[in-house]
Specification:
Elements (H helix, E strand, L loop, with lengths): L9 H11 L5 E8 L10 E8 L8 E2 L1 E3 L2 E3 L2 E5 L3 E3 L10 E3 L6 E2 L11 E2 L4 E7 L6 E7 L1 E6 L5 E6 L5 E5 L9 E5 L8 E5 L12 H4 L2
Parallel strand pairs: 1-17, 3-7, 6-12
Antiparallel strand pairs: 1-14, 2-13, 2-15, 4-5, 7-10, 8-9, 8-11, 11-12, 15-16
Length: 214
């Protein structure tokens, strides 16, 4: 129902202007599945609608548990910091040779180092100098709306409107640079969109593919 404002009566006019200025958010859901139709976790979905004006104060966390980075993939906003606690009973040495941020921690167990700031957009691939099997990813976004799919392969967004395209990235994706641009034509408020990616788990490829392609 349309709201018609009249300035003849001051109070009704003010109420009318207040209601008409309220913006409704667009709510939508993205579901990522693999080539077998199975839910795909650790996929990053980025909505390039609003750029980052100020990095969040919240420090993101990648833990180290059972010789794994947990979670394997995180998505942060450009300028945000990440800390790397060690909840293993052994020492780790976290490093990255990625173009957007190169760093190396001291070998540590109980005492965590200072958070690392990621002030460039892109992908940072993490490794451990002690345990070659450990690999993690930090997706640094220049946009405010970015999320990682959960175990059910789903992310949800609430924005002022739906962007014309979305960016989808997964470290095992066979798309160029592990990335795909998705057209959102036909995606309405309150609706869901399913995206299928072809993925190749690391045990099926030769060498450290993630590092060589970033």
């Amino acid at each position: 129902m349309a709201i018609t404002c009249s300035l003849r009566q001051t109070l009704p006019a003010l109420l009318c202007l207040a209601f008409s200025s309220i913006s409704t958010a667009a709510e939508f859901q993205i579901s990522i599945v693999d080539q077998n139709g199975e839910p795909l976790s650790n996929a990053v979905v980025e909505s390039p609608l609003a750029i980052v004006l100020r990095a969040p104060d919240e420090v993101a966390v990648i833990d180290q548990v059972n010789k794994r980075f947990v979670p394997m993939v995180i998505a942060i906003q450009q300028g945000q910091s990440v800390t790397f606690p060690n909840n293993d009973n052994i020492r780790h040495h976290v490093y990255s040779f990625s173009a957007i941020r190169q760093f190396s921690t001291e070998l540590y167990a109980d005492v965590n180092g200072d958070p690392v700031v990621f002030d460039q957009a892109g992908i940072a691939v993490l490794g451990c100098n002690i345990h070659d099997s450990m690999i993690g990813y930090i997706y640094v976004s220049a946009f405010q709306h970015v999320a990682v799919t959960d175990a059910s392969g789903i992310v949800r967004f609430s924005q002022e409107r739906i962007a014309e395209t979305l960016n989808v990235w997964h470290p095992w994706s066979t798309d160029p640079d592990n990335r795909r641009e998705i057209n959102t034509t036909g995606l309405a408020d309150g609706a869901a969109l399913q995206v299928q990616l072809n993925v190749t788990p690391p045990e099926q490829v030769f060498g450290f593919r993630a590092l060589s392609t970033q």
